[in-house]
Protein: Aminotransferase
Amino acid sequence: MTTAAGFRRASRIAGLEISEIVQISERAAALKAAGKDVVSLSTGEPDFPTPAHVVEAAHAAALAGKTKYTATAGTAELRGAVAADAGVTVAEVIISTGAKQVIANAMLATLEPGDQVVMPAPYWTSYSDIVAMAGGVPVVVPCAMEDGFKLSPAALEAAITPQTRWLMLNAPSNPSGAIYSQAELQALAAVLDRHPQVWVMADEIYEHLNFIPFTRLAVAAPQLRDRLLTVNGASKAWSMTGWRIGWGIAPAPLVKAMGAVQGQVTSGACSIAQAAAVAALTGDNSLIDVRRQALRARRDRVVAALNAVPGIDCPSPDGAFYVFPRITGAMAAKGFDSDAALCTWLLEDHGVAIVPGRAFGLPGHARLSFAYSDADLDAGLGRIAAALGA
Structure:
């Protein structure tokens, strides 16, 4: 047995662990490996395959010898494709190893110890950890289900202080599926107009997975463009999670600073995956519409099934591929004092994995993904219903 004598964990990651989503997924996998029948509805990964023309582009790139290092900020072809889609210059685009690296680059490049970052809850689990790792202070603003899980202008105004450096805004939202209307975005922008020191991160990775109209923040509030970072990528719409390609669109000075961070961490993203992403952005994307309709049908089935379960109140999401129901009634009925305890019981005793709302900064809820096969959804929903007495 070996020991790590003298090991000391850095204070900046003292409270940092693998995300609860990953922990649950790994526990579900371990139970499966031990022979237990487990259905996982916990991960944010489409069950659709990567489109054939995207895979073919990667194959062609590999055969053509495009297997060398790329520029740190990305290949000219992919940066150009992203710039054309967003209506910006290539200097305002950086390609990273997934959207998560875009966010980490930005926080590490801009935050000083004690700088505050406003994040409406529920938020994607990595936001708070990335901010803390970069020395910042997450300022969590709970956004109730009754308000559509959306940040109000009044709540934003109340959260901003002289130490506020960023607002993190995610729409379509992971985990709630919330989408802000153009008018709602403009109302938030009116608050930000009064606080020019606050930059905005618009995480729009689920942009193409929308069931109501979606407006980019850069379009709704063009006056914010000189302090706006838009985060996007290939993972969700094109089912390219494992290809690890994300991009950031921001003023050139921020892109340059993010590149300085990235250059010391990963350098450029995978050359072959970047070629695939070019095909995704510029090719025939009619398949996205087909898959969106399939997700809409799954959403409707999942919402109806969960609302039939005692103690669960499940609103219908406007985008992405998650539901985020309130489960406090079920917790009380089964004698659990936390959403995490209920979710653990469902996994260990009933073989279905979902993620507690506490992981997203809003306890009393749970996240279920409907980006799974109909068979998995039926099995998982059936187990939840049986466990909770439907």
